[in-house]
Amino acid sequence: MPQSETALKKNVAVIGAGWAGLAAAHTLQQQGMQAHLFEQSHTLGGRARKVHSRKLDKVIDNGQHLLIGAYSETLQIMQELGLEEKQCFLRMPLAIATPQQDFRLRVKPGLPSPLHFLYAIGCAKGLTLPDKHKLVQALLKLKLRKWRVTSGQTVAQWLKQEKQSVWLVRFFWEPLCIATLNTATPEACMQLFANVLQHSTDAGKQASDFLIPRSNLSALWPEKLNPQIPVYYGKSIQQVQRTATAYQIDGQDFDAVILATPPAQCARIIGNFPDSKNYSDLLEALGQFRFNPIITITLELENNWDLPLPVYLLKTEDPARDPGQWLFMRSSFVMDSSRPEVTVVISQASHWLEKTKEELIGLLLGQLQRQAPAHAPLPPIKGWDLITEKKATFSAEPGLQRLPNRSCLPALYLAGDWTDTGFPGVLEGAVRSGRQAARLLVQDLI
Ligand SMILES: Cc1cc2nc3c(=O)[nH]c(=O)nc-3n(C[C@H](O)[C@H](O)[C@H](O)COP(=O)(O)OP(=O)(O)OC[C@H]3O[C@@H](n4cnc5c(N)ncnc54)[C@H](O)[C@@H]3O)c2cc1C
Q1: What does DSSP assign to residue 189?
Q2: How many other C-beta atoms are found inside a 10 Å radius of the C-beta of residue 121?
Q3: One domain, residues 62 and 38
Q4: Residue 343 included in any domain
Q5: In contact, 59 and 53? CB cutoff 8 Å
Q6: CA-based end-to-end distance of the chain
Q7: 322 and 385 share one domain
Q8: pTM for the complete prediction?
Q9: Is residue 137 part of a domain?
Q10: pLDDT of residue 335
Q11: Domain range for residue 426?
């Protein structure tokens, strides 16, 4: 780059190295800016990161993540970083099945969208004919209404309106809503759920594909970021100084700042500005988010569990004793899986938090033993770890005011899965938010 250009290069501080901050830094760098990442922890990835499990003496993730084919901007960044999709993910057509295969819904590859999904419902095992009819009718109605629903409607209200049967609600809609919005149907925002259904059933035949990471989440792409982006680890930023021209952090000048932290931390930084009372509306909006937990359990097995699919739906027949919702057969997709292991995900896990880890593991093992097929019983357990993310995602309720990326402060932008992305709290929302914040910043600064 010529020297004059280097001199003109704007310095931008990105606070928070979750997927939103990382996507912002990557996009800024691509657009000729100099991004600097400030991260309070010592790991890249935020809520989608690697952790060292002392119990299992190995690197695991803070939570099992599933991506889908519709995550186009995430896949785009990974492509820009020169990463091979096949090395990074196991891609498979959408398949939702229980271990005993008493419920099975599989998309047939090759059919155009949304026919592929309608065909999957038509051929689904475990659904009665009237249930299939009701399900297709509800989806077609949504499509005809261009995926717009009554404002303020919850998913439970919509399910009632569409006369979905108790069975369909319990074993199809509720697990799907909790898995995608991490919010139970009586509280969940139907418009956000409709957006998810649109992205996965009506956005091209590969949009509904499952993409299961083969490596830990930090290694997937965060650690492959351009090395010219300095990362300041262990830096919990509480204060950003405003100067005559722009901003200062730790005595270093920046032309602009992207706050890519959760809303409470954004509020703390903005609240520390001397004129913060001028931003009371923004501070109030940042304060209205509520969060729901996700628990992830990793089980190390004595020997391989002989189940053919990489992921299964677990039935929560008795809500008091069946905690597990999704079972991931990690040995079938993880690159360096030397020991057989599975992970189990419990989303919207609030009412399990009062159990001890040991109690929860006991209940889960009972559930897995009951739901394993007779020809493939659960192998003996060698070890386990359990991670609770108390604030895994925001509670996706109707009427929640999501914030735009451009804030009311000059040269200060917001990024994160909680901003106004049209997605619930998911990786693709975080990535799109980070990229959009960076694009707006470049537009405004140049
Ligand atoms: C257990 C679990 C399972 C999930 N499963 C899925 C899934 O299957 N599919 C899916 O798409 N999504 C899933 N999600 C959601 C997904 O992980 C999030 O949507 C996404 O990671 C949010 O990224 P973010 O960058 O917006 O926020 P964060 O990841 O929270 O990033 C914020 C970053 O800011 C840092 N920070 C905070 N305060 C400061 C400060 N003052 N100074 C400096 N740094 C600071 C934090 O350490 C963090 O690194 C899951 C989340 C969890 C927790």
Answers
A1: B
A2: 18
A3: no
A4: yes
A5: yes
A6: 17
A7: yes
A8: 0.96
A9: yes
A10: 78
A11: 3-44+225-289+398-445
The number of the ligand 1 atom at minimal distance from the alpha carbon of 21 is: 25
> Ligand 1: which residue has its CA nearest to atom 27?
18
What is the tens place of the pLDDT at every residue in 113-160? 778 888 899 999 999 999 999 999 999 999 999 999 999 999 999 999
Q: Which of 152, 175, 208 is the last residue of a domain?
A: 208
Question: Is residue 75 one of the residues assigned to a domain?
Answer: no
Domains identified in the chain, total number: 3
Question: For 278, which DSSP code?
Answer: G
Which residue shows structure tokens 């537009």? 443
Taking only the tens place, the pLDDT of each residue in 43-81 is 999 999 999 999 999 999 999 999 999 999 999 999 999
Cα–ligand 1 centroid distance for 19 (angstroms):
7
CB of 387 shorter than 6 A to ligand 1 = no
Distance from Cα 260 to the centre of ligand 1, integer Å: 10
Is the minimum distance from the CB of 417 to ligand 1 under 6 angstroms? yes
261 CB within 6 A, ligand 1: yes
> How far is residue 223's CA from residue 225's CA, in Å, rounded to a whole number?
5
Q: Are 61 and 67 in contact (CB under 8 A)?
A: no
* Residue 5 confidence class, pLDDT cut points 50, 70, 90: low
Residue 98 lies in a domain: no
Tokens of 359: 């109690």
Q: 136 CA to middle of ligand 1, Å?
A: 34
Tokens of 39: 């991260």
